[in-house]
């Protein structure tokens, strides 16, 4: 009897943990699915202007047309970017809009130099006025849908922007843009940042897996009880 009680308590704890794991994974699935749906819908919508960035969560991945100027001396090469299996860098340049706000602009991918001592060839920008078409990237949403998929090189989207700000000793807006095109052709990226393959991920499957584990716990408890009672049944 004592063994049955101990096994029952252990099974209860494991069962509760399995259900908690299932619920956690399902919640992650729901969040990721809703954010992916937001992105799918926003990609289809017409372009916005800077004035419509007051609520950035609602405009994630919307196309934006914005005027301003690049600040060439504030440029960062982001390591570990790949294109068609080739190693390279992401080119991120500071952009100051006509309203005076500052944003980081991801100007796409460039192939690495032939060796570690040779810098990549990057299209130069100047500080002349320019109109760019970009894609709004909202860091907290990216962290929720894909984790490190969007976060290079930080652990999440927010830390990425913080890292860029820290490297350049400045403060920018809590969003950034992927450059699609500009009204000056020489600024168009040769390899723009592509849209991600949106997926709800494995969270729903993991949730079902935790439920199966919970069932296995109950089955294990049943086997323990059956074995404990077998001698009594044989005597009877």
Give a nutshell description of this structure:
The chain has helices spanning 2-44, 139-146, 157-168, 203-235, and strands at 63-83, 86-97, 102-111, 130-138, 175-182. With 236 residues, it is α+β, with helices and mostly antiparallel strands.
Structural features, described:
About 6% of the residues have low confidence. Helix 1 packs across helix 2 and helix 1 packs antiparallel against helix 4. By secondary structure, the chain is α+β, with helices and mostly antiparallel strands. The protein is elongated. The chain folds into two domains: 69 residues; 126 residues.
Largest sheet: 5 strands, mixed, barrel
Strand-residue proportion: 25-35%
Secondary-structure element order, as H and E? HEEEEHHEH
Low-confidence stretches: 143-157
Number of strands: 5
The radius of gyration computed from the alpha-carbon positions, rounded to a whole number of angstroms, is: 26 Å
- Structurally, how many domains make up the residues? 2
Helical percentage: 40-55%
Structural class: alpha+beta
Morphology: elongated
Our measurement of the CA-to-CA distance between the termini, rounded to an integer number of angstroms, reads 17 Å
What is the count of helical runs?
A: 4
What is the residue-averaged pLDDT? Answer: 84
Strand order of the largest sheet: 1-2-3-5-4
